Amino acid sequence: MALSRSGRALGLLARLLNLHQDEAPPVAVGLLMFFLLFTGYFMLRPVRETMGVAGGVDNLQWLFTGTFVATLAVLPLFGWLASRVARRRILPAAFGFFVLNLLLFALMFAGDNANPWLARTFYIWLSVFNLLAISLAWSVLADLFSSAQAKRLFGVMAGGASLGGLAGPALGTLLVVPAGHAGLLCLAALMLAGSASAGLWLYAWRDRHPLPASAAPAQQDQRRALGGNPFDGALEVVRSPYLMGIALFVVLLASVSTFLYFEQARLVAETFPDRERQTQVFGTIDFVVQALAILTQLFFTGRLAQRLGIGALLVAVPVVIAAGFVWLALAPVFSVFVVIMVARRAGEYALVRPGREMLYTVVPPAEKFKAKNFIDTVVYRGGDALSGWLKRGLDLLSEMPATAMLIGAGIAVAWAGTGVMLGRAQRRREPPADAPP
């Protein structure tokens, strides 16, 4: 009787999450992969944000530019790795390197926690690591699941990121005093190693449950290296109108995010002069964002993608943010900003990011790793740097922040239009027989 009740409960949970038979184990492991990755990252994020404000709001564009330069330097190294290592080994190899980086930073923080150049270096490193590690985790999922499965499952697995976003700040707050920054870095390294192990398990699971050739014709090549040269990712983007569309979408997304990020730094610095209070504000925003995102990811993202298409995920948030920029131009106060920032970040995690990753399920393996990584890192950080200087220039030319907000609204409208075009292009590329086995 107890087993029967347990079976009914699991069946009900599977229906609520929109899972098919035998999909629960890989979905749980995919969720765990993101949970460990994001818990480690979000333990360290409030520290990074406080360092950014402490360096001066007027100097943020320099940190963004430094991050972009560092991303350009890392790109050939990742391109070399992706060309030489089997697809299934790319994530654990890269994550292993990041684990060593974290342990090295832990040693340096234990020796001199107040060094400003160490703080700036860590800010830039964490910003590069964030995009590259998350991009790689999504590359694994795009490599293993068909487009039809992605529409149902990517939102649920992305829930692990939001759970990590909830657990990370809480752990950081509880442990930063007894463990210090060095201890947090060591714990984040341990979590990153666990995330890499989850990625390896997913490839082993797919070996036991292969997709039909019509749904994923390239799956049989997962044990082979992609080949090519370290700069193939950039060349593939330039050659493909579809990838160029994704790159434009990412630039517009980064521009909107940067406009709001600079406004966040300005309003928080004006409203909360105390550093500890600033860290609490950043942590509270993170908590609210992740709580809203996870509810949407678990119960709504997959169903929206199935019924309305990927385009709906890509367009909804830009439209809301365009209206939010106009509202912020009319009422430039912290309370209004918080509503808009929460809507932007929760919507990006729950709708835009899963939708964006679904676009890669219909491209060849090299584009899933090399081109995708180029877009997610170099293109994204390039958009950050350019929009950071644009926002700074607008602030210098005009004493009225409303000008920048109205320009941000125009960028958000263009972002929405690009999402519409990408949704249609993905639908044309989707195999007609794409269905789970």
Distinct helical segment count: 13
**Radius of gyration from the alpha-carbon trace, in angstroms:** 21 Å
The number of domains is 1
Helix-strand topology string: HHHHHHHHHHHHH
Give the CA-based shape: globular
The CATH topology corresponds to Growth Hormone, Chain: A
Q: Please state the structural category.
A: mainly alpha
Approximately what portion of the residues adopt beta-strand conformation?
A: under 5%
The overall pLDDT average reads 83
Give the gist of this structure:
The model has no long low-confidence stretch (mean pLDDT 83). It is built from 13 helices and no strands. The chain has 437 residues and is mainly α.
Write the SSE topology.
Blueprint lengths: L1 H16 L6 H31 L5 H25 L2 H25 L4 H29 L2 H62 L23 H8 L1 H31 L3 H34 L1 H21 L3 H25 L6 H33 L4 H28 L8
Helix pairs in contact: 2-5, 2-6, 2-9, 3-5, 3-12, 4-5, 4-6, 5-6, 5-12, 6-9, 6-11, 7-8, 7-12, 8-11, 8-12, 8-13, 9-10, 9-11, 10-11, 10-13
Question: How does this structure look, described?
Answer:
It is a single chain. With 437 residues, the chain is an all-alpha fold. It has one domain (22-213, 231-429): Up-down Bundle (Growth Hormone, Chain: A), CATH 1.20.1250.20. Helix content is 84%, strand content 0%. It contains 13 helices and no strands. It has helices spanning 2-17, 24-54, 60-84, 87-111, 116-144, 147-208, 232-239, 241-271, 275-308, 310-330, 334-358, 365-397, 402-429. It is globular and about 60 Å long. The chain starts with a helix and ends in an 8-residue tail after the last helix. The model has no long low-confidence stretch (mean pLDDT 83).
